[in-house]
Amino acid sequence: MKRCYSILVLLVLLISACGAAPNRSSGLPRVLAVESFLADIAQNVVGNRLTVQSLIPVDADPHAYQPSPQDAAKITDADVLITNGANLEAFLGPILQNSGGKQRVISASAGLTPRSDPSGQNPAGDPHFWLDPNNVIKYVENIRDGLSQADPAGAAQYSANAQKYIGDLNSLDAWVKSQVQGILQARRLLVTNHETFGYFAARYGFTIVGAIVPSITSGAAPSAQELAALISQIRSNKAPAIFLETGTNPQLADQIASETGVKVITDLYTHSLSAPGGPAATYIDMIKYDVTRIVGALK
Ligand SMILES: [Zn+2]
């Protein structure tokens, strides 16, 4: 019996060594990013020094995410937790309170000024900073600075990696601008599932015609009056398309399309990367994929 128990303990130790704590044996911090796109951004900063894990599975919606007990354990086990901030991850509050606050939390968007929520329901403002690559430069700087404090021996490497990746983000911004020039100004019109593209629109000269869920979160359902108002906005602006993110139920968009004749694009990656090997497996590929779909639908 005692021997069985020892084997069981050994197994549990082995499993936890394989699963949750890839950086523990090296003495390096265990870094967990909440969203998959944040994990990719952070991985570019840490390079080959350590591996950044991500918490929310691909295609899951952070606004509506229900953490499992395993998620809570992963968070408690992390030395550094990277969040988007601006109240995107409302589910984190109780877990962080229970975990005793021992992990360093890097809020990637700290220092950026949020645009206000058009619905007025979210005092923290619009959290979708990352859909403008210029805001992600600030994310990179915050992640670099936070990790350099958690792991001072890696600071020079983090700084060099961050500088290179910021160069890639500047190139991405120039690429988006060049692509958007292919759309007539009068057709740079966005209708989305919820208010996701505010920062993107401001940077690249789009007008937000409206959203099916007129809020910066995805949870609410629109009233009949709100839907009717959106349909009349789409008609008066001659918006060519509705853009949904992967995983969104297209029923309301299809209903609006049948009344207005707009196209429905159902596969933008906005809150999550694609699975590895998919069309949006990195943050930079996610932006390129979305811009290509938007330009294709509005041209
Ligand atoms: Zn959102």
Question: What can you tell me about this protein's structure?
Answer:
With 299 residues, the protein is α/β, with parallel strands linked by helices. The protein folds into two domains: 26-113 and 123-176, Rossmann fold (3-Layer(aba) Sandwich), CATH 3.40.50; 179-298, Rossmann fold. It contains ten helices and eight strands. The strands form three sheets. It has a four-stranded parallel beta sheet with strand order 2-1-3-4, with helices on one face. A two-stranded parallel sheet has the order 5-6. A two-stranded parallel sheet has the order 7-8. Helix 9 (251-260) links the parallel strand 7 and strand 8 (263-268). The radius of gyration is 21 Å and the shape is globular. The structure holds zinc ion. Zinc ion is lined by residues 63, 128, 194, 196, 218, 271.
Main β sheet profile: 4 strands, parallel
| CATH superfamily caption of the largest domain | Nitrogenase molybdenum iron protein domain
Number of helices: 10
Q: How many angstroms separate the termini?
A: 71 Å
Strand line-up in the sheet with most strands: 2-1-3-4
- The portion of residues forming beta strands comes to 5-15%
User: What are the low-pLDDT stretches, counting only 5+ consecutive residues below 50?
Assistant: 1-21
Approximate helicity band: 40-55%
- What gross morphology would you assign? globular
Structure ligands = zinc ion
Rg to the nearest angstrom? 21 Å
Which class best fits the helix and strand makeup?
alpha/beta
The CATH architecture of the largest domain is: 3-Layer(aba) Sandwich
DSSP summary, beta strand count: 8
CATH topology of the largest domain: Rossmann fold
The CATH class of the largest domain is identified as Alpha Beta
The topology string of helices and strands comes to HEHEHEHEHHEHEHEHEH
Total of domains: 2
Mean pLDDT: 91
